[in-house]
Amino acid sequence: MQVQPGYFLEAVSPTGQRTQQKISRRSRAVSPWEFTMFILPLLVAFLPLQDNDVSPTAAEIVVTGERVEKARKALDQCRAKNCPPRDDILLSLTLADAQFLEGDYRNSRRTLMAARRRNAGFASHYPLEVAALHRATGRLHSLNGKPERALGRGADAVDALRTRYDPVSREVLLQRLSNGDGLVRTHEIEAGLARYADVARAAERAGLPDIQGLAMLRRAMLLTSMAESTWSYRALAERARAAILDNRDPRFLPFRNAVRIMPVREAKGEEARKAVIDAVMAQLEPDPSPRPNPLLVYQPSLRIEDFHYGLASGTSDPAFVDISFRILPSGQTADVHIINLVGPVASRWTEIIMKAIAERRYAPLAHADGLLRLERTNFVSDVIGGNFPGSGGGINALANSPSRIPHRSAERRLEIMDLTLDADPEIPPAASMN
Questions:
Q1: Cα torsion for 13, 19, 20, 21, to the nearest 10°?
Q2: How far is it, in rounded angstroms, from Cα 161 to Cα 112?
Q3: Can you give the pTM of this predicted structure?
Q4: What does the pLDDT look like over 379-415, one tens digit per residue?
Protein backbone atom coordinates (compact mmCIF):
# COMPACT_ATOMS: atom_id res chain seq x y z
CA MET A 1 0.00 0.00 0.00
CA GLN A 2 1.48 3.33 -1.04
CA VAL A 3 0.71 6.36 1.06
CA GLN A 4 1.16 10.01 0.24
CA PRO A 5 3.59 11.48 2.81
CA GLY A 6 2.08 13.54 5.59
CA TYR A 7 3.49 14.84 8.83
CA PHE A 8 3.55 11.36 10.37
CA LEU A 9 3.59 9.28 7.21
CA GLU A 10 6.96 10.60 6.13
CA ALA A 11 8.35 8.69 9.07
CA VAL A 12 8.04 5.36 7.24
CA SER A 13 11.46 6.31 5.87
CA PRO A 14 14.27 6.08 8.40
CA THR A 15 15.63 9.32 6.95
CA GLY A 16 12.25 11.00 7.24
CA GLN A 17 12.54 12.43 10.71
CA ARG A 18 11.09 15.85 11.30
CA THR A 19 12.75 17.34 14.29
CA GLN A 20 10.47 19.42 16.43
CA GLN A 21 11.90 22.65 17.76
CA LYS A 22 11.14 24.47 20.96
CA ILE A 23 11.95 27.44 23.09
CA SER A 24 13.16 26.68 26.57
CA ARG A 25 11.00 27.63 29.51
CA ARG A 26 14.05 29.42 30.91
CA SER A 27 15.25 31.08 27.72
CA ARG A 28 17.04 34.40 27.97
CA ALA A 29 18.30 36.76 25.29
CA VAL A 30 20.99 34.11 24.82
CA SER A 31 20.35 30.73 26.40
CA PRO A 32 22.10 27.39 25.97
CA TRP A 33 18.70 25.78 25.64
CA GLU A 34 17.94 27.93 22.62
CA PHE A 35 19.88 25.27 20.73
CA THR A 36 16.71 23.61 19.49
CA MET A 37 15.64 26.85 17.85
CA PHE A 38 19.13 27.68 16.56
CA ILE A 39 20.77 24.59 15.15
CA LEU A 40 17.93 22.76 13.46
CA PRO A 41 16.90 25.50 11.03
CA LEU A 42 20.48 25.91 9.87
CA LEU A 43 20.32 22.32 8.65
CA VAL A 44 17.32 23.08 6.46
CA ALA A 45 19.28 23.56 3.24
CA PHE A 46 22.38 21.65 4.25
CA LEU A 47 21.26 18.10 4.99
CA PRO A 48 22.42 15.82 2.17
CA LEU A 49 19.71 14.10 0.20
CA GLN A 50 19.41 10.37 0.75
CA ASP A 51 18.87 7.57 -1.74
CA ASN A 52 17.07 5.19 0.61
CA ASP A 53 13.96 3.85 -1.07
CA VAL A 54 11.60 2.30 1.43
CA SER A 55 8.36 3.08 -0.40
CA PRO A 56 5.79 0.28 -0.57
CA THR A 57 5.39 -1.85 -3.66
CA ALA A 58 3.45 -0.37 -6.56
CA ALA A 59 1.10 -3.36 -6.75
CA GLU A 60 -0.72 -2.27 -3.63
CA ILE A 61 -3.56 0.18 -3.12
CA VAL A 62 -2.93 3.91 -3.02
CA VAL A 63 -4.15 6.17 -0.24
CA THR A 64 -3.79 9.91 -0.83
CA GLY A 65 -4.75 12.91 1.26
CA GLU A 66 -7.59 11.36 3.26
CA ARG A 67 -9.70 13.41 5.52
CA VAL A 68 -10.42 11.90 8.92
CA GLU A 69 -13.56 9.97 8.03
CA LYS A 70 -12.12 8.49 4.87
CA ALA A 71 -8.95 7.50 6.71
CA ARG A 72 -10.91 5.96 9.56
CA LYS A 73 -13.06 3.97 7.14
CA ALA A 74 -9.98 2.64 5.35
CA LEU A 75 -8.42 1.56 8.66
CA ASP A 76 -11.65 -0.09 9.84
CA GLN A 77 -11.96 -2.03 6.60
CA CYS A 78 -8.33 -3.09 6.84
CA ARG A 79 -8.76 -4.41 10.35
CA ALA A 80 -12.05 -6.14 9.48
CA LYS A 81 -10.22 -8.10 6.80
CA ASN A 82 -7.38 -8.89 9.22
CA CYS A 83 -4.95 -7.07 6.94
CA PRO A 84 -1.17 -7.45 7.32
CA PRO A 85 0.46 -5.48 10.15
CA ARG A 86 2.28 -3.27 7.67
CA ASP A 87 -1.01 -2.08 6.14
CA ASP A 88 -2.47 -1.60 9.61
CA ILE A 89 0.48 0.61 10.57
CA LEU A 90 0.40 2.74 7.41
CA LEU A 91 -3.36 3.28 7.60
CA SER A 92 -3.11 4.10 11.30
CA LEU A 93 -0.44 6.69 10.49
CA THR A 94 -2.71 8.05 7.76
CA LEU A 95 -5.61 8.48 10.19
CA ALA A 96 -3.39 9.95 12.90
CA ASP A 97 -1.94 12.38 10.37
CA ALA A 98 -5.40 13.56 9.30
CA GLN A 99 -6.50 13.95 12.92
CA PHE A 100 -3.32 15.84 13.75
CA LEU A 101 -3.73 18.28 10.86
CA GLU A 102 -7.31 19.00 11.93
CA GLY A 103 -6.14 19.72 15.48
CA ASP A 104 -7.57 16.59 17.09
CA TYR A 105 -4.37 15.75 18.95
CA ARG A 106 -6.08 13.61 21.56
CA ASN A 107 -7.61 11.16 19.09
CA SER A 108 -4.49 11.25 16.93
CA ARG A 109 -2.51 10.09 19.95
CA ARG A 110 -5.08 7.42 20.75
CA THR A 111 -4.94 6.14 17.18
CA LEU A 112 -1.18 5.81 17.34
CA MET A 113 -1.12 4.21 20.78
CA ALA A 114 -3.71 1.63 19.74
CA ALA A 115 -1.69 0.85 16.62
CA ARG A 116 1.43 0.40 18.74
CA ARG A 117 -0.34 -2.08 20.97
CA ARG A 118 -1.43 -4.09 17.95
CA ASN A 119 1.79 -3.98 15.94
CA ALA A 120 4.86 -3.26 18.09
CA GLY A 121 5.55 -6.99 18.25
CA PHE A 122 6.11 -7.13 14.49
CA ALA A 123 9.27 -5.02 14.57
CA SER A 124 11.44 -7.87 13.30
CA HIS A 125 9.24 -8.13 10.19
CA TYR A 126 8.56 -4.43 9.61
CA PRO A 127 11.27 -2.46 11.44
CA LEU A 128 10.88 0.76 9.45
CA GLU A 129 7.12 0.90 9.86
CA VAL A 130 7.15 0.02 13.56
CA ALA A 131 9.90 2.58 14.19
CA ALA A 132 7.78 5.18 12.38
CA LEU A 133 4.88 4.32 14.65
CA HIS A 134 7.03 4.81 17.75
CA ARG A 135 8.33 8.15 16.48
CA ALA A 136 4.89 9.50 15.63
CA THR A 137 3.57 8.45 19.06
CA GLY A 138 6.49 10.25 20.67
CA ARG A 139 5.67 13.45 18.78
CA LEU A 140 2.12 13.40 20.11
CA HIS A 141 3.37 12.75 23.66
CA SER A 142 5.58 15.81 23.36
CA LEU A 143 2.69 17.90 22.08
CA ASN A 144 0.70 16.64 25.04
CA GLY A 145 3.25 18.18 27.40
CA LYS A 146 5.16 14.98 28.16
CA PRO A 147 8.49 15.22 26.28
CA GLU A 148 10.12 12.54 28.46
CA ARG A 149 7.68 9.99 27.08
CA ALA A 150 8.79 11.04 23.62
CA LEU A 151 12.32 10.03 24.63
CA GLY A 152 11.03 6.59 25.51
CA ARG A 153 9.37 6.20 22.13
CA GLY A 154 12.61 7.24 20.44
CA ALA A 155 14.39 4.44 22.29
CA ASP A 156 11.65 2.05 21.16
CA ALA A 157 12.27 3.14 17.56
CA VAL A 158 15.97 2.30 17.89
CA ASP A 159 15.11 -1.13 19.29
CA ALA A 160 12.71 -1.76 16.41
CA LEU A 161 15.30 -0.82 13.79
CA ARG A 162 18.01 -2.93 15.40
CA THR A 163 15.94 -6.09 14.96
CA ARG A 164 16.93 -6.02 11.27
CA TYR A 165 19.60 -3.33 10.87
CA ASP A 166 23.20 -3.18 12.02
CA PRO A 167 23.82 -0.88 15.03
CA VAL A 168 26.01 1.34 12.82
CA SER A 169 23.64 1.36 9.84
CA ARG A 170 22.30 4.60 8.43
CA GLU A 171 18.82 3.84 9.73
CA VAL A 172 19.86 3.27 13.35
CA LEU A 173 22.34 6.16 13.47
CA LEU A 174 19.78 8.65 12.14
CA GLN A 175 17.31 7.56 14.78
CA ARG A 176 19.95 7.83 17.51
CA LEU A 177 20.78 11.30 16.24
CA SER A 178 17.12 12.27 16.48
CA ASN A 179 17.05 10.87 20.01
CA GLY A 180 19.97 13.15 20.84
CA ASP A 181 17.79 16.10 19.83
CA GLY A 182 15.17 14.79 22.24
CA LEU A 183 17.70 14.75 25.08
CA VAL A 184 18.53 18.39 24.40
CA ARG A 185 14.85 19.31 24.33
CA THR A 186 14.45 17.93 27.83
CA HIS A 187 17.56 19.86 28.94
CA GLU A 188 19.81 16.80 29.19
CA ILE A 189 22.61 18.87 27.65
CA GLU A 190 25.63 16.72 28.51
CA ALA A 191 23.80 13.56 27.47
CA GLY A 192 22.93 15.20 24.16
CA LEU A 193 26.55 16.23 23.56
CA ALA A 194 27.71 12.71 24.31
CA ARG A 195 25.11 11.22 21.96
CA TYR A 196 26.18 13.49 19.08
CA ALA A 197 29.85 12.66 19.62
CA ASP A 198 29.12 8.93 19.74
CA VAL A 199 27.03 9.02 16.55
CA ALA A 200 29.73 11.06 14.77
CA ARG A 201 32.41 8.50 15.66
CA ALA A 202 30.23 5.57 14.63
CA ALA A 203 29.30 7.22 11.34
CA GLU A 204 32.96 7.95 10.56
CA ARG A 205 33.87 4.30 11.14
CA ALA A 206 30.95 3.17 8.99
CA GLY A 207 31.88 5.50 6.12
CA LEU A 208 28.74 7.66 6.39
CA PRO A 209 30.05 11.24 6.09
CA ASP A 210 26.62 12.82 5.79
CA ILE A 211 25.51 11.44 9.15
CA GLN A 212 28.93 12.17 10.64
CA GLY A 213 28.57 15.79 9.50
CA LEU A 214 25.07 16.10 10.92
CA ALA A 215 26.22 14.84 14.31
CA MET A 216 29.33 17.05 14.35
CA LEU A 217 27.28 20.09 13.35
CA ARG A 218 24.69 19.50 16.04
CA ARG A 219 27.44 19.20 18.64
CA ALA A 220 29.27 22.31 17.37
CA MET A 221 26.14 24.42 17.44
CA LEU A 222 25.06 23.23 20.86
CA LEU A 223 28.52 23.96 22.25
CA THR A 224 28.46 27.39 20.61
CA SER A 225 25.09 28.14 22.16
CA MET A 226 26.35 26.99 25.56
CA ALA A 227 29.53 29.04 25.20
CA GLU A 228 27.54 32.26 24.90
CA SER A 229 26.61 32.01 28.56
CA THR A 230 29.26 29.62 29.98
CA TRP A 231 32.88 30.48 29.18
CA SER A 232 34.14 26.96 29.91
CA TYR A 233 32.50 25.74 26.70
CA ARG A 234 34.22 28.25 24.43
CA ALA A 235 37.34 26.25 23.66
CA LEU A 236 35.27 23.13 23.01
CA ALA A 237 32.99 25.09 20.69
CA GLU A 238 35.93 26.52 18.74
CA ARG A 239 37.48 23.08 18.29
CA ALA A 240 34.15 21.60 17.21
CA ARG A 241 33.66 24.28 14.55
CA ALA A 242 37.27 23.99 13.37
CA ALA A 243 36.92 20.20 13.00
CA ILE A 244 34.12 20.76 10.49
CA LEU A 245 35.83 23.56 8.56
CA ASP A 246 39.06 21.54 8.35
CA ASN A 247 37.35 18.52 6.82
CA ARG A 248 37.74 19.09 3.07
CA ASP A 249 35.71 16.09 2.00
CA PRO A 250 33.30 17.38 -0.72
CA ARG A 251 30.47 15.72 1.15
CA PHE A 252 31.19 17.99 4.12
CA LEU A 253 30.49 21.12 2.05
CA PRO A 254 27.00 21.72 3.50
CA PHE A 255 28.29 21.44 7.03
CA ARG A 256 31.17 23.83 6.39
CA ASN A 257 28.65 26.31 5.05
CA ALA A 258 26.49 25.83 8.13
CA VAL A 259 29.40 26.82 10.36
CA ARG A 260 30.05 29.91 8.22
CA ILE A 261 26.48 31.14 8.84
CA MET A 262 26.87 31.12 12.61
CA PRO A 263 28.34 34.68 12.95
CA VAL A 264 24.96 36.12 11.92
CA ARG A 265 23.69 35.09 15.33
CA GLU A 266 26.22 37.32 17.08
CA ALA A 267 25.59 40.50 15.07
CA LYS A 268 24.07 43.38 17.05
CA GLY A 269 21.88 45.95 15.37
CA GLU A 270 20.05 45.87 12.06
CA GLU A 271 22.75 47.54 9.98
CA ALA A 272 25.52 45.38 11.43
CA ARG A 273 23.43 42.28 10.85
CA LYS A 274 22.82 43.16 7.21
CA ALA A 275 26.55 43.60 6.69
CA VAL A 276 27.30 40.26 8.35
CA ILE A 277 24.65 38.48 6.27
CA ASP A 278 26.11 39.89 3.06
CA ALA A 279 29.61 38.85 4.13
CA VAL A 280 28.45 35.36 5.04
CA MET A 281 26.68 34.92 1.71
CA ALA A 282 29.90 35.79 -0.10
CA GLN A 283 31.84 33.15 1.87
CA LEU A 284 29.51 30.22 1.22
CA GLU A 285 30.87 27.48 -1.01
CA PRO A 286 28.69 26.89 -4.09
CA ASP A 287 26.56 23.81 -3.50
CA PRO A 288 25.49 22.01 -6.69
CA SER A 289 23.25 19.54 -4.85
CA PRO A 290 19.51 20.05 -5.36
CA ARG A 291 17.89 20.95 -2.06
CA PRO A 292 14.12 21.50 -1.83
CA ASN A 293 14.17 23.60 1.33
CA PRO A 294 15.23 27.24 1.61
CA LEU A 295 18.20 28.22 3.76
CA LEU A 296 17.17 30.32 6.75
CA VAL A 297 19.93 32.75 7.64
CA TYR A 298 18.30 34.93 10.29
CA GLN A 299 15.20 35.25 12.45
CA PRO A 300 14.70 37.57 15.44
CA SER A 301 14.81 36.09 18.91
CA LEU A 302 11.75 34.38 20.29
CA ARG A 303 11.88 34.70 24.06
CA ILE A 304 9.44 33.15 26.44
CA GLU A 305 9.35 36.26 28.65
CA ASP A 306 8.07 38.32 25.71
CA PHE A 307 4.90 36.26 25.50
CA HIS A 308 3.61 37.42 28.92
CA TYR A 309 1.72 34.30 29.87
CA GLY A 310 0.69 35.89 33.15
CA LEU A 311 -2.13 34.05 34.89
CA ALA A 312 -3.00 31.90 31.91
CA SER A 313 -4.07 28.47 33.12
CA GLY A 314 -2.37 25.31 31.93
CA THR A 315 -4.36 23.09 29.63
CA SER A 316 -4.10 19.72 27.92
CA ASP A 317 -6.12 21.00 24.96
CA PRO A 318 -4.17 21.70 21.77
CA ALA A 319 -3.31 25.33 21.15
CA PHE A 320 -1.67 26.28 17.88
CA VAL A 321 -1.61 28.69 14.99
CA ASP A 322 -0.97 27.80 11.33
CA ILE A 323 0.76 30.61 9.43
CA SER A 324 1.45 30.79 5.71
CA PHE A 325 4.02 33.05 4.11
CA ARG A 326 5.99 33.51 0.91
CA ILE A 327 9.76 33.57 0.59
CA LEU A 328 10.64 36.06 -2.12
CA PRO A 329 13.50 35.49 -4.58
CA SER A 330 15.49 38.09 -2.61
CA GLY A 331 15.25 35.91 0.53
CA GLN A 332 12.87 38.24 2.34
CA THR A 333 9.39 37.14 3.42
CA ALA A 334 5.97 38.51 2.48
CA ASP A 335 2.26 37.68 2.61
CA VAL A 336 2.34 36.45 6.22
CA HIS A 337 -1.18 35.27 7.10
CA ILE A 338 -2.92 33.22 9.77
CA ILE A 339 -4.59 30.21 8.14
CA ASN A 340 -5.91 28.43 11.20
CA LEU A 341 -6.01 29.07 14.94
CA VAL A 342 -7.08 26.46 17.49
CA GLY A 343 -7.36 26.60 21.27
CA PRO A 344 -6.43 29.27 23.82
CA VAL A 345 -3.93 31.33 21.81
CA ALA A 346 -3.56 34.97 22.82
CA SER A 347 -3.40 37.58 20.07
CA ARG A 348 -0.07 38.80 21.44
CA TRP A 349 1.45 35.35 20.90
CA THR A 350 0.45 35.28 17.25
CA GLU A 351 1.71 38.85 16.77
CA ILE A 352 5.16 37.86 18.03
CA ILE A 353 5.33 34.79 15.78
CA MET A 354 4.14 36.69 12.70
CA LYS A 355 6.55 39.56 13.30
CA ALA A 356 9.46 37.13 13.60
CA ILE A 357 8.48 35.42 10.34
CA ALA A 358 8.14 38.78 8.58
CA GLU A 359 11.68 39.72 9.63
CA ARG A 360 13.32 36.45 8.56
CA ARG A 361 16.06 36.43 5.97
CA TYR A 362 16.66 33.43 3.73
CA ALA A 363 19.37 32.88 1.16
CA PRO A 364 18.29 34.16 -2.30
CA LEU A 365 16.14 31.73 -4.26
CA ALA A 366 16.31 30.64 -7.87
CA HIS A 367 12.49 30.48 -8.02
CA ALA A 368 11.10 33.49 -9.89
CA ASP A 369 7.85 33.42 -7.92
CA GLY A 370 9.43 32.57 -4.58
CA LEU A 371 8.19 29.75 -2.35
CA LEU A 372 5.04 29.37 -0.28
CA ARG A 373 5.47 27.87 3.19
CA LEU A 374 3.11 26.73 5.93
CA GLU A 375 4.19 26.39 9.56
CA ARG A 376 2.37 25.40 12.72
CA THR A 377 3.42 26.88 16.05
CA ASN A 378 2.20 24.80 19.01
CA PHE A 379 1.89 26.36 22.46
CA VAL A 380 2.41 23.35 24.72
CA SER A 381 1.53 23.33 28.42
CA ASP A 382 3.91 20.80 29.99
CA VAL A 383 2.97 18.52 32.86
CA ILE A 384 5.01 19.56 35.92
CA GLY A 385 5.11 18.41 39.53
CA GLY A 386 5.39 14.83 40.69
CA ASN A 387 8.36 12.58 40.03
CA PHE A 388 6.99 9.50 38.33
CA PRO A 389 7.83 8.63 34.71
CA GLY A 390 6.06 10.92 32.29
CA SER A 391 5.15 13.55 34.88
CA GLY A 392 7.78 16.01 33.77
CA GLY A 393 11.20 14.59 34.61
CA GLY A 394 13.93 16.89 33.39
CA ILE A 395 11.42 19.65 32.69
CA ASN A 396 10.39 19.51 36.35
CA ALA A 397 13.95 20.17 37.44
CA LEU A 398 13.73 23.54 35.71
CA ALA A 399 10.15 24.35 36.56
CA ASN A 400 10.80 24.47 40.34
CA SER A 401 7.23 23.43 40.95
CA PRO A 402 6.56 23.25 44.72
CA SER A 403 3.81 20.68 44.20
CA ARG A 404 4.25 16.93 44.08
CA ILE A 405 0.90 16.68 42.34
CA PRO A 406 1.24 16.61 38.54
CA HIS A 407 -0.39 19.63 36.91
CA ARG A 408 -0.15 21.72 33.76
CA SER A 409 2.26 24.63 33.59
CA ALA A 410 0.78 28.07 32.89
CA GLU A 411 3.80 28.83 30.72
CA ARG A 412 4.01 27.41 27.23
CA ARG A 413 6.73 25.58 25.35
CA LEU A 414 6.81 26.28 21.63
CA GLU A 415 7.10 23.50 19.07
CA ILE A 416 7.28 24.72 15.48
CA MET A 417 6.53 22.32 12.64
CA ASP A 418 6.83 22.76 8.89
CA LEU A 419 3.61 21.56 7.25
CA THR A 420 4.60 22.60 3.74
CA LEU A 421 3.62 19.78 1.39
CA ASP A 422 6.79 19.93 -0.69
CA ALA A 423 9.16 20.25 2.25
CA ASP A 424 11.81 17.56 2.42
CA PRO A 425 10.58 15.36 5.32
CA GLU A 426 14.07 14.73 6.60
CA ILE A 427 14.71 18.47 7.00
CA PRO A 428 13.68 20.28 10.18
CA PRO A 429 11.22 23.19 9.91
CA ALA A 430 12.42 26.74 9.41
CA ALA A 431 12.71 28.72 12.60
CA SER A 432 15.62 30.26 14.39
CA MET A 433 16.87 31.98 17.49
CA ASN A 434 19.30 34.86 17.50
A1: -170
A2: 18
A3: 0.79
A4: 988 888 765 444 444 444 444 455 667 777 777 888 8
